[in-house]
Design goal:
This is SalK. It comes from Streptomyces durbertensis. The chain is an all-alpha fold. The chain has one domain. The protein has 17 helices and no strands. Helix 2 runs antiparallel to helix 7, helix 10 runs antiparallel to helix 11 and helix 12 crosses helix 14. It is globular.
Length: 290
């Protein structure tokens, strides 16, 4: 169309990289543990599972294993549906939103939370989310059914959540088509040096060291990692193909927002993310191959 700037092939990925931390920081915040702890949920994995799965309702372990993909079903089944007796989904949603409010105010500061730039970022992110598709995207669709918070910083967090889950749902379909289990996908990402470190995978995803080693053995047999568990050229090519295909199935929200809007959202969200990271939003050893 005349006068419309075409969207760069990786623009959506760059925008996601800027926006996603504004969603995920809540899971590493002490505020989330405090909010759920007040309801009697003190186990870290239970807090994460309940907070992220709450939009789906009081689902059982099978649904969560399917939608989260890279988590141990055994770990999930030990906690769900039992956790819903401590904190029903409706209460969990309220608790995670309070945690997001407190965490963003602490990490960004009141002046930034009240700034016109943050309000603009929220408006752009919500506009992008209008282009998302519900079909075959259960976590996105469940979050999209929730009301948009009135306060701009919470509206931004909600929009970031929808955009994150939309890309994530599509990403899992790509991983499945590439023949990677959830643990293999996690291990191959870690092998690049950019994914979650092994100690964090084992601490949060519920897998044993034996299962982690078995996944690496399988990847080694396919030529995807070497004897040092580092990514090979073949493995790197596969990871690049996975990301490119994920870009393809996640284009809709960014095409809907348009190139200028995507560039502006990337700029604004990137600045907010850098401020949150600088304030200690994430553990220093979260990523890397150890």
């Amino acid at each position: 169309m005349t006068g419309v700037t075409p969207l760069d092939a990786r623009a959506g990925r760059r925008c996601h990289g800027a926006v996603n931390p504004l969603h995920s920081l809540v899971y590493f915040s002490p505020e989330l543990a405090e909010e759920f702890g007040s309801a009697g949920v003190t186990d870290r994995s239970s807090v994460y599972l309940a907070a992220r799965a709450a939009p789906l309702g009081a689902v059982g372990p099978g649904t969560v294993t399917a939608t989260f993909y890279s988590f141990s079903h055994r770990m999930i089944a030990e906690r769900l549906p039992a956790v819903w007796r401590q904190i029903p989904p409706e209460q969990a949603l309220e608790s995670r939103l309070r945690a997001a409010d407190r965490a963003l105010r602490r990490l960004l500061g009141e002046q930034t939370v009240e700034s016109p730039e943050l309000a603009e970022a929220a408006e752009l992110a919500l506009r992008a989310a209008e282009g998302c598709e519900r079909g075959a995207r259960p976590l996105y669709a469940a979050n999209a059914d929730l009301p948009v918070p009135d306060e701009p910083h919470l509206a931004l967090w909600h929009a970031a959540t929808m955009l994150r889950e939309h890309r994530g749902d599509g990403h899992l379909a790509v991983l499945l088509s590439m023949g990677l289990t959830g643990l293999e996908a996690q291990a191959s990402h870690t092998a690049t040096g950019r994914g979650m470190s092994p100690r964090w995978v084992l601490a949060t995803r519920g897998f044993t060291e034996q299962e982690w080693r078995a996944a690496l053995t399988g990847l080694r047999a396919r030529g995807l990692v070497d004897d040092n568990n580092s990514i090979t050229d073949t493995g790197l090519a596969l990871r690049k193909q996975i990301e490119a295909r994920t870009d393809d199935v996640d284009r809709a929200p960014y095409e809907h927002l348009g190139a200028a809007g995507v560039a502006r959202l990337t700029e604004l969200a990137g600045a907010l993310t850098m401020k949150a990271v600088g304030a200690g939003a994430f553990p220093a050893d979260l990523t890397g191959a150890d």
